[in-house]
Design brief:
heterodimer, A: about 650 residues, Phenylalanyl-tRNA Synthetase, Chain B, domain 1, 7-stranded mixed beta sheet, 19 helices, B: about 325 residues, alpha+beta, 2 domains, two-stranded antiparallel ribbon, protein biosynthesis (chain B)
């Protein structure tokens, strides 16, 4: 909302600088976003929240200024010379559904002379961004800007027969003032005469009844429309005007009368002409009053406000305050017609708070006891995982939740199986990610060339078609598989040291997928990314990718015991063997672990030779209760060797 | 002696050794200057015929260099920290050179802000929980007094999945959701991702982060909210931080306020919206609005990170650019 300072000053005295005034307005809740200087004029650009359409008018803003400054608000000049002579009756407007237009004022002015507006008026409109057209149209716009109430003037001589205001039917057309023929859906408000639609009510007048140089007689119509109908029409037609912006809010219930009087005065003064008809005005009930218990101020705001301050603030904003002689702590507050946003005591509390000034409030801290909610008992797995992955060299990132069809397809994911938004803005942000991998692969791709080793992880929600939206951790890395697995294992071991890493399946997306399962619950997965997919993302390194299914952990507590430190020395034995080249080396370790007094077993070398592979294992023997003798160890070792030979057909290499 | 066979034998022995001492004694055994097996082969060269020499010398040289490499590789594998390069490194020791960065991964600046916010509010007794991103119109809008066709919906351009489901436009969807299943007193943070259907530029993205705070109790007032905000911002930006508060409008809080921060001593910048939870919202959660009151606030972690680090383009947070992430 643009408000020239000179215009505001017609209604309120301003004795401070524009900057100071802007600050005062802001601190009372009317936000000045910018102060513009146009020639000698100063124009405030205000952010008006949707609850305050009364400040979508200069007069409403002036009222705020008067309240903040504690100065007087001058009345809007609507004094009109009382029309002389016999008045014709006002043209009838038939309204089929009262809800569409609960209140209005209308009347006829005859013998106007349409010509360009006087300079001051035209210039003022330009300052607020409205193009001057002619004096009559300009005055309707001027009064709208001044009062916040839109008005419309028809060329009365272009209207044939009786006027009807009704809801549009699907497919009806109206050609608006901007020359565009608009096809309507059902439910828009229109006005028609006996032959044609003449107004897309609340948005823009019809071209066929517009004021032009030849216009002599005008029908001035100042309505209040059903906000929802206006808003829907605005959305359906994509037409948003200064009028519709106001009509879709709760306008001053009595504002149509004031605006009619003000416009009539200006038209007769500026464009000549005279009021020739009775004024027809239909109003919905405007009185509304509230009982205001002052105790709420202390309860909600936390401060004591003196009674006279409360009365001053409310009166200044136009509320009618009366004291209840029997209830010391209660006020009866009449709500002014322009404050449709005030519904209860809590709204009055806000009015007092914002004008009193929040920056004058003392600052306190919550008084109640610290609550204990059940979430607090859960182990923070997310925090632990972030720590492990960061220490493991993974960078935490965030990628977009919405992605493109192209990205899905590059990752071999099926768009038809993926949730999508119904109203995408661009095709880059259309589908809800079913997995974090596609965008994480994009992340690797985007950084290739910068680093040899690229590792990312992300925590976020993924979406399945039947609208489940689990939160997961996914990670990708160009590190060797074993190193990635090592990081994941650090997390998994904290969940349950006995979890086994199992091959799940050959999938379409990964070469082989492995998973950590607890019973039937899959807690984590890990795989190498399929080279075809990597190629789609222009990645020419091997990439390991995995996920931890966070929500399945939420009820688990870490199940991790420390190993007592050994009291007796270890005996370390190396064991080398040939096995079939496709035998998972893990099986060798499993057998080693089964051996007597084995406290550690690890593969320290592995290489392929023909169709065999050589595996070297380091086994640590250590007893809890004594120092092992060489002889004992030799026996234990021999047993492991026999098992390896028997179960895995290993050929033990003798040193 | 068959050199190929010898090579194979030595290499597999090298592979089998796992201590540095063992490796060293093995090296002496084969390459030792006096007794080394391979060294001794060289000693035999003078006694060979010319033809033999031409054949043996290159083969022996090759064997020796291959074995040397195998020892060296194994050595660095067994102890990558020290080994052969230590002496060289010491020779070039220069304390004035910049330190080498730690090998850990980097955190994300906006997520780091969320962690800081959690920590600050944890001190004040707040917990946190995440919420659904695909949300119903009911919890995102209607229960917060943003009824269908409400003009305030314009300020929250919305992605819809269908008539009923949408991508939440704010973390305030958690207010009623949480209160429905948790009896007050409540002190909670709701961090998470939100969505707005807006054109992308340096300050707008289709998805971004928000963090909501909610306190509901039998006794709570705006002065508490102001005190908490003041503590929070001073803790985040320093004790001398200047803030100001003014009235605003959110349909789900009454009174509503906005908070600005004096940025670099010269410019007031909006940092958060807040207010007393509207009694109707309390009622919408099935609670007695005469008994319970509360306050809520919401803010954007990216925006806070932008202020703190001087970042000018919000898109950097979602690009996964290592050059960017490595700075945090």
């Amino acid at each position: 909302m643009l408000a020239p300072l000179s215009w505001l000053k017609e209604f309120v005295k301003v004795s401070v600088s524009a900057e100071k005034l802007a600050e005062n307005l802001l601190l009372s809740g009317t936000k000045v976003e910018q102060i513009r200087r146009v020639g000698k004029e100063i124009v405030f650009d205000l952010e008006i929240t949707p609850n305050r359409p009364d400040t979508l008018g200069i007069y409403g803003i002036a009222r705020e200024i008067a309240t903040v400054q504690g100065s007087d608000l001058l009345p809007l000049d609507t004094d009109l010379l009382i029309p002389t002579g016999r008045l014709e009756s006002a043209p009838a407007l038939k309204i089929t559904d009262k809800k569409l237009c609960p209140s209005y004022t209308l009347g006829l002015l005859r013998s106007v002379r349409v010509k360009p507006s006087p300079t001051y008026l035209a210039e003022r409109l330009k300052l607020v961004g409205i193009r001057p057209v002619n004096n009559v149209v300009d005055i309707t716009n001027y009064v709208m800007w001044e009062t916040g109430q839109p008005l419309h003037a028809f060329d009365f001589d272009k209207i044939e027969g009786e006027l009807t205001l009704r809801a549009s039917k699907e497919g009806e057309q109206v050609r608006t003032l901007d020359g565009i023929s608009r096809k309507l859906s059902s439910g828009s408000i229109i006005i028609e005469d006996s032959r044609k639609l003449i107004d897309l009510a609340g948005l823009m007048g019809g071209e066929n009844s517009e004021i032009d140089e030849g216009t002599q007689n005008i029908l001035l119509h100042v309505p209040i429309y059903d906000p929802i109908a206006i808003r829907r029409t605005s959305q359906q037609t994509g037409l948003r005007t200064e009028s519709s912006n106001r009509f879709e809010k709760k306008l001053d219930r009595a504002g149509h009368i004031t605006a009619f009087e003000r416009a009539t005065k200006l038209i007769t003064e500026i464009a000549g002409g005279r009021v020739s008809s009775e004024t027809k005005s239909i109003s919905a009930p405007t009185k509304k009053s509230l009982i205001f218990d002052l105790g709420i101020l202390k309860e909600v705001l936390g401060i004591e406000v003196k009674l006279n301050q409360v009365v001053n603030i409310l009166s200044s904003l136009g509320f009618q305050v009366s004291l209840d002689p029997f209830q010391e702590n209660q006020l009866r507050v009449g709500v002014p017609s322009w404050r449709g946003d005030i519904e209860g005591a809590i709204d009055l509390t806000e009015e007092i708070g914002r004008i009193y000034g929040y920056n004058r409030f003392p600052k306190t801290l919550p008084k109640g006891a610290v609550p204990v909610q059940k979430e607090l008992y859960n182990f923070d797995w997310e925090k632990f995982i972030v720590q492990v992955f960061r220490e493991g060299g993974f960078n935490q990132t965030m990628t977009h939740t919405l992605l493109s069809k192209k990205t899905l397809e590059r990752a071999s994911l099926e768009p038809s199986q993926t949730l999508k938004v119904a109203n995408p803005m661009t095709e880059d942000f259309e589908f809800l990610r079913p997995s974090l991998y596609p965008e994480l692969l994009v992340a690797i791709s985007r950084n290739r060339g910068k680093d040899k080793i690229i590792s990312f992880f992300e925590i976020g929600r993924v979406f399945e078609k039947e609208v489940s939206q689990p939160k997961i951790v996914s990670f990708v890395s160009t590190k060797p598989f074993s190193q990635v697995k090592g990081v994941l294992e650090k997390v998994v071991k904290r969940i349950d040291p006995n979890l086994k890493f199992e091959k799940v399946e050959e999938t379409t997306t990964g070469i082989e997928r492995y998973s950590f399962d607890k019973g039937k619950l899959q807690l984590a997965e890990l795989s190498l990314v399929n080279p075809t997919i990597l190629k789609n993302f222009e990645i020419n390194q091997t990439v390991s990718a995995g996920s931890i299914f966070l929500e399945k952990l939420s009820d688990l507590q870490p199940n991790y015991l420390y190993q007592p430190l050994p009291k007796f020395p270890p005996v370390i034995e190396d064991l080398s063997m040939f096995v079939a080249s496709d035998l998972p080396a893990r099986k060798i370790l499993d057998i080693a672990w089964e051996g007597t007094a084995v406290s550690e077993a690890e593969v320290f070398d592995i290489f392929r030779e023909g169709n065999q592979k050589s595996v070297a294992v380091k086994i640590t023997f250590q007893a809890k209760d004594r120092t092992l003798t060489d002889k004992e160890v030799a026996v234990f070792r021999a047993k492991i060797e026999r098992n390896l030979e028997k179960k895995l057909l290993a050929k033990i290499r003798k040193a | 002696m068959d050199l190929a066979k010898l090579k194979q034998q030595v290499i597999s022995e090298i592979q089998a050794v796992h201590t540095q001492d063992g490796l060293e004694s093995m090296r002496i055994k084969y390459l030792g200057r006096k007794q080394g097996l391979v060294t001794k082969l060289f000693e035999k060269i003078p006694s060979l015929s010319l033809v033999e020499k031409r054949k043996q010398v290159p083969a022996l040289n090759q064997l020796r260099s291959q074995l040397e490499k195998a020892f060296k590789d194994r050595e660095s594998l067994l102890n990558p920290q020290v080994g052969a390069t230590t002496e060289k490194k010491l020779a070039f020791f220069d304390a004035s050179l910049p330190g080498s960065p730690p090998q850990a991964g980097h955190s994300h600046p906006a997520l780091q802000i969320i962690e800081e916010i959690k920590e600050i509010f944890h001190y004040l007794g707040f917990g946190w929980v995440d919420g659904p991103e695909v949300e119903t119109d009911l919890y995102n809008f209607q229960k917060l007094r943003l009824y269908k066709d409400h003009p305030a919906r314009d300020t929250q351009q919305t992605y819809y999945l269908n008539e009923e489901l949408l991508l939440r436009t704010h973390t305030s969807n958690m207010q009623v959701r949480y209160l429905e299943s948790h009896k007050p007193p409540v002190r909670m943070l709701f961090p998470g991702r939100v969505f707005r259907r807006e054109a992308i530029d340096a300050t707008h993205l289709p998805d971004f982060l928000q963090i909501e705070g909610l306190l509901v109790d039998t006794e709570s007032s705006l002065t508490d909210l102001l005190g908490v905000i003041d503590f929070f911002l001073k803790r985040l930006f320093g004790e001398k931080t200047k803030t100001r508060v003014y009235g605003h409008h959110f349909p789900y809080t009454e009174p509503s306020i906005e908070v600005e921060l004096l940025y670099q001593g010269k410019k007031w910048l909006e940092i958060m919206g807040a207010g007393m939870v509207h009694p109707e919202v309390i009622r919408n959660a099935g609670l007695d609005a005469k008994k319970y009151r509360g306050w809520a606030f919401g803010m954007g972690p990216e925006r806070i990170a932008m202020l703190r680090y001087g970042i000018e383009d919000i898109r950097l947070f979602y690009n996964s650019d290592l050059e960017f992430l490595k700075q945090f």
